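[Protein data]
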Amino acid sequence: MALISRKKQVYPISDGLMDYLGGYGRLVSLPINYQGLGVYTETVAVYDKHGQDTLWETVLYRSSDRDPIYRALVEIYADLKVMGDMGVMAHLVTDRVDVCTWGNTKPYRIRILNTLNQNFDYFYVKKADASRIYGLELEHILAPSRIEFLSTKDTVVEQHVAGLPARVFMEHYLKDTRLDEVRLAKEFVKFNERCLLRLLGDMHAGNFVVDITPDFDETVYSMRAIDFDQQSYEGRCHVYLPQYYKVNNPLVFLSMRCMSEETYRQYRNEERTLMGNRARVEGDRLSALLDSMCEDELAPRENVLRLRKELSEHHGDKRFMQAESMGDLVRISLARITKG
């Protein structure tokens, strides 16, 4: 079982990271920041369609605060989706603001409603943390699907990642007779490998989603991270492998049941090749990100020392022992799949 620190330290956005964000269009001036959303007077619990508590609460504002806050949130949505063009956003309104009070980060979830067709979309407003920013940007560069976000010095705005929470998927879909177990197992192996190679930790069933896409004759599954707070922080190698989280055991056992060791190695190597290709295509951008990451403190010194030793033993690669920062460890890990 992977063990996560009870409370992770928050690391500030450095000048180097700010320069990177500005250079790649991530840095913006927001009409309202994370702290500005905290002036609500009360909250109401949000329940799902089965009557279960979602751990989110809808926040209620005084009318004098609500209107300017709601307008500002539509402006932020326009920044995130159409580079701030409010001309195509006149029919959008902020429908609801939720806060998750469970855990350390307390993010806000914003629901934007299209009044012309009653369709809605979500985005998230969170406290800016260097770990989260690096995690988001590595996801954008290295994962199969892009992820959009914007940041200031103290606030980060993230797009909603569509999919079923892995916990819900395992509870309700694993027994479906139409489930393609082999394809699902293949995707879990690939997701497991992606997390390890870019050192994204804490991928338990509440922190990633499963997206189901019907193909012309089969079903395609994809797994996507939705929480990036534990990017390159913990000192244990197992923390970066979803297979070691007890809550993920249904996926682990399914994969063990329908996959041979030879097939496992094949899918793992396929993902390494795909990640290596993405890293090479985005070489300049990735290099600039890692330059900043190597200079930043993102974890206690003892975590870096322990993780470099465990990664060296896990991969049989002594280059990890030369690392002096979490950024160094990510760079060495990715160098193994881009240059051998």
